[in-house]
Every structure is written in C-alpha cells, then in structure tokens.
UniProtKB/TrEMBL annotation:
It comes from Poecilia latipinna. This is Golgi transport 1Ba. GO terms for cellular component: cytosol; endoplasmic reticulum; Golgi membrane. One of its GO terms (biological process) is endoplasmic reticulum to Golgi vesicle-mediated transport. May be involved in fusion of ER-derived transport vesicles with the Golgi complex. It is a multi-pass membrane protein. It comes from the Eukaryota. InterPro entries: Got1, Vesicle_transpt_Got1/SFT2. The chain crosses the membrane at residues 12-30, 36-53, 65-85. Keywords: Golgi apparatus, Membrane, Transmembrane, Transmembrane helix.
C-alpha cells in the first residue's frame, strides 16, 4: 500500500472536492460559482499532492506552455463569468496537459474486473482510447 503524507491526503481531498464541484457545476447548467470553486480546489489539491515546486515545473515546462495557457485561461474565463467558454478551454487544456497519463489510466482500468472486460472487447479495443488520445494530441500540436 502507498503511504501518503498528511499534505498529500489533504491534496487528495481537495482534488476530489474540486472534481465534484466541477461535475456538479456542469450538471447545474454551468453554474459560475460551483465551477469557480471546483477550479480553485482542483488546482490547490494538485499543488498539495505533488508539491508546489513540482506543480510549477509541471505546468510551466516549455513544451506545455500552450496547454497551460488554455487550462489556466479557462479557469480565468470561468472566474470572470463566462462558464461555458471557460470549461471548453479548460477541457482542451486538460487533454493537452495530461495526455501522457491517459495510456496509464487506460492500462489501469483494463485491470479492473468488470471495466477491463468491457475495454478488451474486440469492437471497443479496436477503437482504443490510446489511439484516440494519440491522434487527438498529434492534431492538437498544430
């Protein structure tokens, strides 16, 4: 089992609440306040989980500046009151930022008993998320 420090446990909680508020804000027709709270909690939770310095290094790498500008720009647009446009920018930036993690997530999900059997079905594995993510990311580079 993985041992977490207290700040990492707090970060996991903040990130979880951030995702919850983002999801709930989208369900309630893009409620500005819930989306803003979710954004702040998600970014703060990420900083607690991996540390402040590593968070800055992750977001401000030279090859991730476009993705960071879309993600943080989307957060800013939500905060100033245009939630739909901001969420679209955030989602695009999120996929650009975390595209390297998607194959790892798919591999992890394939090991879960019920979900793994669904993802390994022939017609679903032919249109694999790994392939979709790589084509999305290669298109997003241009």
């Amino acid at each position: 089992m993985i041992s977490l420090t207290d700040s990492q446990k707090i970060g996991m909680g903040l990130t979880g609440f951030g995702v919850f508020f983002l999801f709930f804000g989208m369900i309630l027709f893009f409620d500005k306040a819930l989306l803003a709270i979710g954004n702040i909690l998600f970014v703060a939770g990420l900083a607690f989980v991996i540390g402040l310095e590593r968070t800055f290094r992750f977001f401000f790498q030279k090859h991730k500046l476009k993705a960071t500008s879309f993600f943080l720009g989307g957060v800013f647009v939500v905060l100033i009151g245009w939630p739909i446009i901001g969420v679209v920018l955030e989602i695009y930036g999120f996929f650009l930022l975390f595209r390297g993690f998607f194959p790892v997530v798919v591999g992890f999900i394939r090991r879960i008993p019920v979900l793994g059997s669904i993802l390994n079905m022939p017609f679903i594995s032919a249109v694999s998320i790994d392939h979709c993510c790589s084509s999305l990311c290669s298109c997003a580079m241009f």
